[in-house]
């Protein structure tokens, strides 16, 4: 990594105001050869719900940000889905936006100079949903190699920006998950041991639908999207043991 870029990223980390943070981040983005960036933090793991609290810092065109929110594009945007489901950075290609609804959104984004770039999920201590993305005009496939080369610096920049945003905006952790019932913990433990829903139902002498209901409640309470994520978070929170 170029030392000048690293020193500029440290200025992002240590920014003393949101305005300075925006300016310093934009400077690094341009050093990496890109034009716009967007950082967001949602204190609600499922962005399809209407009650999430959203914090954002961005230099994307205001018209595009307003359009994105107006059209609920986060529901069809594959980069938003990537933030929800993965921890590794994603360089964009044209194939990233191959689904019909995503392609419509992408064609509109191009009009605002947003077509080639990278999306970086940010792992948070509170299990909030956070991400950092940056982009520029141009064909995503032709600029794919350039996007890949920026991954390490871009991902680190996103982590530094996240730390700065939390500090500058004094963002408090979201409330701890709701308590699990004894039956929910029982189902969770058996699921963690590798038993399928039908096997758990047989062991607890109930029907499979009841087990699915309990496990769905557990996922919601832990803010998990998948069975594996549910078990991982339960272990991290010391609800169940290894």
Automatic annotation (TrEMBL):
Q: Does the keyword DNA-binding apply?
A: yes
- Name of the protein described by the UniProt record: LuxR family transcriptional regulator
Task: Respond yes or no to whether keyword DNA-binding is given for this record.
Answer: yes
The UniProt keywords, alphabetically, are:
DNA-binding, Transcription, Transcription regulation
Q: Which residues form the HTH luxR-type domain?
A: 173-238
């Amino acid at each position: 990594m170029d030392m000048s870029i690293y020193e500029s990223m440290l200025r992002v980390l240590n920014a003393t105001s949101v305005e300075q943070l925006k300016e310093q981040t934009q400077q690094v983005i341009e050093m990496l050869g890109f034009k716009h960036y967007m950082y967001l933090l949602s204190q609600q793991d499922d962005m399809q719900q209407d009650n999430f609290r959203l914090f954002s810092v961005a230099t994307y065109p205001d018209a595009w940000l307003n359009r994105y929110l107006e059209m609920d594009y986060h529901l069809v945007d594959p980069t938003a889905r990537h933030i929800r489901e993965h921890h590794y950075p994603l360089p964009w290609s044209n194939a990233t936006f191959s689904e019909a609804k995503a392609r419509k959104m992408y064609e509109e984004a191009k009009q605002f100079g947003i077509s080639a770039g990278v999306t970086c999920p940010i792992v948070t201590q509170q299990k909030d949903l956070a991400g950092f993305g940056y982009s520029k005009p141009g064909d995503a496939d032709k600029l794919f190699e350039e996007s890949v080369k920026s991954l390490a610096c871009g991902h680190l920049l996103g982590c530094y920006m996240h730390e700065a945003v939390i500090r500058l905006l004094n963002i408090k952790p979201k409330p701890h998950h709701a308590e699990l019932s004894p039956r929910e913990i029982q189902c969770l433990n058996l699921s963690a041991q590798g038993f399928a829903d039908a096997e758990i139902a047989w062991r607890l002498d109930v029907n499979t639908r009841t087990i699915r209901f309990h496990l769905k409640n557990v996922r919601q309470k832990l803010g998990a999207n998948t069975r594996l994520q549910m078990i991982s978070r339960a272990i991290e929170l010391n609800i169940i043991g290894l």
